[in-house]
User: Fold these one by one.
Assistant:
Number 1:
Amino acid sequence: MNKCIFQFWEESSDDNNSVPDGCSLHTTDIEFKNYVENLYSNRLNSEIPNQYSKFVGNSFDCFVSDELFERLFKSGTIRLNEVEKNNLIQLEEIFFKE
């Protein structure tokens, strides 16, 4: 059992619709902060794009399998789409403690 940071994401569009857009996993809060800063700094200007991903709510702790943690540890961050996120949770590769 390996502790990491979990963040939900959603995709928003200019017609005010939002759909779930997976999650990101991070080894530390600093990795999460760096990921978000890098993501937003890559936008060319201050205009909001027609379609974009944004994080939803606050990040929180989760636990991942050893295999997934090895992948995460190499890069500090893993971005999962909605299907990947749901599959890994169902397979208990990602899990949450109450």
Number 2:
Amino acid sequence: MKGDSSRKKNTSGDTVDKYPELMGLLGSIGAFGLGTALLFDDAKDLGEFSSEDHPSPLHHWIWGLLLMTGGLTGICGFGAKLLEKIVNKK
């Protein structure tokens, strides 16, 4: 019924609506994890820019370091915003 107030409202999106920083934090954690996996995947070439097996200067370890750096920056930034919002919650 239209006026039935006893029906339960859908509240699944409330957390994301209150804390949009969660999406950025989760994305940053994912980027850091993927960067770590790429770094370990190419650990044998760590520090090298080209080799006989891989003539290209772009190795997985380079992308891994970039993703880890960006992910860690995002974790710090979004985590600080989220923590500030939680601490200052009224």
Number 3:
Amino acid sequence: MPRSWLALTMVVLLVGCTPSRRSSQQETPPRDYLERAFFELSKNPPPSIDKEAQEKIQRIVSDLRKNASQKKNYAAEQTNAAKLGYRAFPAIVPLLRDPDPWVRESAIAVLFQLDRKRSTSFLLGMLLDTGKIQYWDDDVSIDTTVGHSAAGLLASAFRSAHGFDTFNTPLDDIGQPQAEERAKQRWWAYHLLYCDWRDTARGSECWLNAQALLSHIPAPDFAEHFKSEPERFKYIPVVWPLTTYYSRIASTRQSLHLDLVFENFGTELPPDGFERGTHVFRLIGPDDREIPATPKLNEIVKAALFAPPVFTWNAYSWDIDLAVAYHISRPGRYRIYYSYLPPESLRNSIYGRAFELQFWNGREYVNYYDFLVH
């Protein structure tokens, strides 16, 4: 049944002579996300502040430390925070390295108040902070970490109504220390580039631009491409696996499902009544060999109630029982590939483009869905 969801690097120019080792190290951003945020601040500092603003910032730091010494959270007065904005960052961000987790906890909250968009790089770096925050709130015991609070702040500024906001953990990382937190870092680091920042009553919010993401164009540059290349964006098909209802880890005695979601983020509404194209599946087993499908897969494909192209901004879900479509009996990691080949009648139109599954595996987008069987 249709479900409508309203959406979803650095180039180094080497000019002239080769720089010395020392200058090269100074100009190269550090790999650690938090260190990178400090580096960017040092490269792009805010304008100088007057005496009045300096006094307000000093008061914020003083009150923040006072609350932290009493194991209390601190929030700046919102009007003052909004007026100070990015100018206060040089005074607040050093607190992220304070040994007291309560200081770090309040520091990320204040940065978020000052400038939501600019704070994201620092919040990203704080996701691995395991500093304990424990307190009582209306007779309820709160036991959290600074990193968890940073994740909450990031999530509160993010808006996406489709499946791109799934924080998958790489299967080979499961069980490793902070595997989920590191996976979240990688997801945010990749997707923040495709954010359209909008001012709302709640503050500035990141709306994931699905057209920019699927076209691999950073959001700030998208409008220019959209204007100069309108044909490119008339049809933007995508198919991705929905991971909400089924686990990527199962036993051979459990049912195994692949829930495919088809969407179209194009600007043009496709005409109706196209003939069906070809659905292509390939399952690779733990030994890296292809597993042949059972005759049931053909029946599943024939029973599909829709055929791309999907209407613009609509989504259709297709639940496939892999345990019926394939004989899956050995433990290990499996990869299933899927692609859609449009019919010959569409090959010369914008809807004649073949497309394949896209899945964020915890590190990057790949053209397969992987799962573990034990």
